[in-house]
Amino acid sequence: MTEATRTRRAWIVGGGSGIGRAVAHAAVDAGWQVTVSGRRGEALAQTQATASNPASVATLPLDVVAENPRNRIAEILRADASLDALVVASGTNNPRRRWTDHDIDDVHRVIETNLVGVLRVVDAALPALRRAGGVVVIVSSYAGWTHSPGAGAAYSASKTALASVVRTINTDEAANGVRACHLCPGDVDTDFLEMRPSVPTAEHRRRMLTPADVARAAMFTMDAPSHVRIDELVISPVSQV
């Protein structure tokens, strides 16, 4: 089988809803074989069932904070198999975001999920990514690219740190052909908005990006030629402030 005809494989963490689900569906539409992971098995099953080709989607429930992804990677690939793309779209925040009302335990949970969880997933996937010269797409945030009032200290710090994670991957893994992108979407109409202190109105949501908008950006990065690296990609609605 030639490289041109080989089925490409993607592991999408946070694939049970929102942006992760949209990326999974877009990848399946483009002929990829996809494994989706996340904490909620029923949500992963819904991602699989609603794909254009459910047979191209496998589900692997995984809590990146409570479980070691290294122990689960073998359930996705044979020991010698490669991985063409890793998309990390999992993340969390808390409605209590200001210094006057946040709780340090919540701060720890946000950083553990948004930063440490990403590091653990990348660490688990790198051996397989090296074999393919694969792509890592870390779905960060507009708050990871520039200051975003209201995002909160924990969320902003954890997402900003992902830019450094991407740079280290690109520096350390260039010789192996592995490329990483810091994908920074602005406001997106997903269930994640329910975590805001004040949930946006329906009118406000209509002006936001859709998960499919962000998925197209992710696919642009995943489909780039092997000699092309997209270090950072910012996508925002016209109304973003």
What can you see in these coordinates?
The protein has a single domain (9-235), classed as NAD(P)-binding Rossmann-like Domain (Rossmann fold, 3-Layer(aba) Sandwich), CATH 3.40.50.720. It has a seven-stranded parallel beta sheet, sandwiched between helices. It is built from six helices and seven strands, in the order E-H-E-H-E-E-H-E-H-E-H-H-E. Helix 1 crosses helix 6 and helix 3 runs parallel beside helix 4 (153-173). The protein has 241 residues and is an alpha/beta fold. The mean pLDDT is 91. The protein is globular and about 50 Å long. The protein is 37% helix and 15% strand.
Low-confidence residue ranges: none
| The CATH top-level class label | Alpha Beta
Shape: globular
Beta fraction of the residues?
Answer: 5-15%
The largest sheet, given as strand count, sense and whether it forms a barrel, is:
7 strands, parallel
- Radius of gyration (Å): 17 Å
User: How many beta-strand segments?
Assistant: 7
Distance between the termini: 48 Å
Strand order of the largest sheet: 3-2-1-4-5-6-7
> In the CATH scheme, what's the topology name?
Rossmann fold
